[in-house]
Amino acid sequence: MSDYRIAIVGATGAVGTKMKEMLETSSLPIKEVKFLASIRSVGKKISFRDKLYEIEELKASSFEEMDIALFSAGGSISEVYAKEAVKRGCVVIDNTSAFRMSEGVPLVVPEVNKEALRQHQGIIANPNCSTIQMMVALEPIRKKYGLERVIVSTYQAVSGAGISAINELKQQAQDMLDEKTTIEANVLPCSGDKKHFPLAFNALAQIDVFSDEGYTNEEWKMINETKKIMSDDELKVTATCVRVPVMSGHSESVYIELKESDVTVADIQAVLSEAPGIILEDNPDEQLYPQPLNSVGKKEVFVGRIRQDLDVKKGFHLWVVSDNLLKGAAWNSVQIAETMHEMNLLKNK
Amino acid sequence: MSDYRIAIVGATGAVGTKMKEMLETSSLPIKEVKFLASIRSVGKKISFRDKLYEIEELKASSFEEMDIALFSAGGSISEVYAKEAVKRGCVVIDNTSAFRMSEGVPLVVPEVNKEALRQHQGIIANPNCSTIQMMVALEPIRKKYGLERVIVSTYQAVSGAGISAINELKQQAQDMLDEKTTIEANVLPCSGDKKHFPLAFNALAQIDVFSDEGYTNEEWKMINETKKIMSDDELKVTATCVRVPVMSGHSESVYIELKESDVTVADIQAVLSEAPGIILEDNPDEQLYPQPLNSVGKKEVFVGRIRQDLDVKKGFHLWVVSDNLLKGAAWNSVQIAETMHEMNLLKNK
């Protein structure tokens, strides 16, 4: 009865490829998969659990026989096709920002707010990569000690900007090592913006386009999504989002202020060491702290460098790292599907 | 009368090389230069203003005929030889951390606290690279509006760890681009520590060794040096220091809280645009913000992404970038010498 037919929209992308991998090892009972992409990729073969599939062209009718659709082909594709999929009885788990802040669309990190899934009306939004890992790290602390304020500075990997950005960074790095005088930049910091800058051996304090108050869209996403996921409009959140020359694995320097007093570093370590989806890597004596390079291919969020602020007793600093393509995107999406299955929120046709 | 004889200690290092370059174009009247290094480099030739000099072995007697000595050969060398130089009548400008927190040793960023130079007893300390650029950016704001609190997360380049670290990063980057399975790491994050990790396409939340309260020495330097330079023990400062795969150019995500209310982003931009040693690069509409790659070879500190905190009215965020080898080290040292000359604090034998 409950074997699902699942479509991946944007199957050839950086995230789509990882969605396939996450589904291959998923506990979700799967009857059929369908790989959808733009006309360019149609006919290419993708293997799934030892079977070869041909990539099909994305059309409204693609969803007719499907139960679940995982979207990661850009916001404009989701805006057009997510509703078509829902009309045809699909549950959509959308990895773009198209519906994240829409009312009636649960924005879900399973470790944090899976109960919100019960309110879905067909579309569930997967939060922004940099938001997800911060939520996993902060929710257990918030639940136990209350959370007053968050200030985050990110160190974000290039894979969040897609395969073309990964290739651009590789080419730039090679050209710089070869001491070429001209370094080409056509994608980063943001493919939709006017100017492009090299990222290799550089750091770009712009992710997505600029918006209100001098903040970028990426920064607004972290701010607004955090409040929605934690259901706390009063929570103080500010973000500075920076792209660094890392292939995969986002890092975050997070400052928090708790509501409760008299909390120690050991208390926070104890809470996090038992929290779901977290690996505590926090031992200065052994130089143990999370590193983006070590996070690649892992589903967990790594937390370390936990320190009390030197001036504000309720203030703490954390270093939070995770594979942005997995927990930040593909794994969180598949995990939402698994969670919905466990909660009996999925049907099949 | 006032033509100086200047020695550079550590002349072959990443900073020593830049000290030579800064002296070559300096306004300081120079009669003679002496390049000192370890026995390994003795006999090698260095050109200075079209004249060739042989590197000499560092000895106590090296300073006998010298007026000024610029040290950048590691703390242990400074500990032994700085006092020998002072005994012989030299003014020492020391770029290591050996004497920075010592009483009677001015810790100077000329734009901020040049008056402290009058109290010197032979040794003047050059602050830590990441501290200097933050001081240049924050002092004009502090002077006008008062400063209550600083939280900084750094994105530090590898050249601060010396030439061996630069070469290691290049080799690691090439090996990773070539998809080699073993990536060697023998220097970073900190040559004096037990374990070494790759920095290429990675981010390491450790600079220098770990110390009290889970903070690294680099973090303590930023905290303690800031209070000393600004002569404000009550100032709240906390730092998270992170090495990123950038060759030169430190970046900093700085959060500040002012004492005064009703300050706007435009006010801060106006103050910084007229402040010494600062180039304001802050125009989101034109995607103008500081980039470490663009800072290389420049003496100034670049400031941009100035935003009001979304929750705390007196809170502001800044992105501060500078060439760590120049303003962060060699230029600040030579600038101290120029400033002392202008203040009539230098003598020659």
From TrEMBL, chains A, B:
Superkingdom field: Bacteria
Under InterPro entries, the record lists: Asp_semialdehyde_DH (IPR012080), Asp_semialdehyde_DH_beta (IPR005986), NAD(P)-bd_dom_sf (IPR036291), Semialdehyde_DH_NAD-bd (IPR000534), Semialdhyde_DH_dimer_dom (IPR012280)
One MF term in the entry's GO annotations: protein dimerization activity
The biological pathway it contributes to is: Amino-acid biosynthesis; L-lysine biosynthesis via DAP pathway; (S)-tetrahydrodipicolinate from L-aspartate: step 2/4; Amino-acid biosynthesis; L-methionine biosynthesis via de novo pathway; L-homoserine from L-aspartate: step 2/3; Amino-acid biosynthesis; L-threonine biosynthesis; L-threonine from L-aspartate: step 2/5
Which residue windows are coiled coil?
none
Q: Where does phosphate bind?
A: 100
Kindly list the positions annotated as binding substrate: 156, 243
Q: What broad class of enzyme is this?
A: oxidoreductase
Gene3D superfamilies attached to this UniProt entry: Dihydrodipicolinate Reductase, domain 2, NAD(P)-binding Rossmann-like Domain
Q: Name one GO biological process term.
A: lysine biosynthetic process via diaminopimelate
Q: Name one Pfam family in it.
A: Semialdhyde_dh
**Where would I find the Semialdehyde dehydrogenase NAD-binding domain in this sequence?**
5-120
List the catalytic activities from the record. L-aspartate 4-semialdehyde + phosphate + NADP(+) = 4-phospho-L-aspartate + NADPH + H(+)
Annotated active site residues, numbered on this chain, are 129 (acyl-thioester intermediate), 250 (proton acceptor)
Q: Which UniProt keywords apply?
A: Amino-acid biosynthesis, Diaminopimelate biosynthesis, Lysine biosynthesis, Methionine biosynthesis, NADP, Oxidoreductase, Threonine biosynthesis
Identify the EC number(s). Answer: 1.2.1.11
Which residues participate in NADP(+) binding?
12-15, 40-41, 159-160, 324
Query: Assembly and interactions?
Result: Homodimer.
Reported function = Catalyzes the NADPH-dependent formation of L-aspartate-semialdehyde (L-ASA) by the reductive dephosphorylation of L-aspartyl-4-phosphate.
Query: What family does this chain come from, according to its entry?
Result: Belongs to the aspartate-semialdehyde dehydrogenase family.
What the entry lists under PANTHER family is as follows: ASPARTATE-SEMIALDEHYDE DEHYDROGENASE, DEHYDROGENASE, PUTATIVE-RELATED
The name this protein goes by in its record = Aspartate-semialdehyde dehydrogenase
